[in-house]
């Protein structure tokens, strides 16, 4: 039974990783925007603007996080395909486990 649990873990991890890969640039943009919004800093893709947090200028980091959002042009389509493949794999393993358990003799 432990081997069956191990078989299920890998497709579940693949689904989670593919979803995380596809939305990681979006998360980066949202975090950068939230930080800039809370600190009332100007954040745009045109130039690096100063943003002082605890005496440190994090404008470069926020700008990099914002521009990282352009990676969504690649990560969303590729992540969607990877997610579809990993969900199909998970469904295949679940169906395989169902029929394997159905074929086992019942214990009394």
Automatic annotation (TrEMBL):
Transmembrane stretches, start-end: 12-36, 67-92
Keywords recorded for this protein, A-Z: Membrane, Transmembrane, Transmembrane helix
Domain of life (superkingdom): Bacteria
Identification of the protein by name: DUF4321 domain-containing protein
Organism: Vibrio tritonius
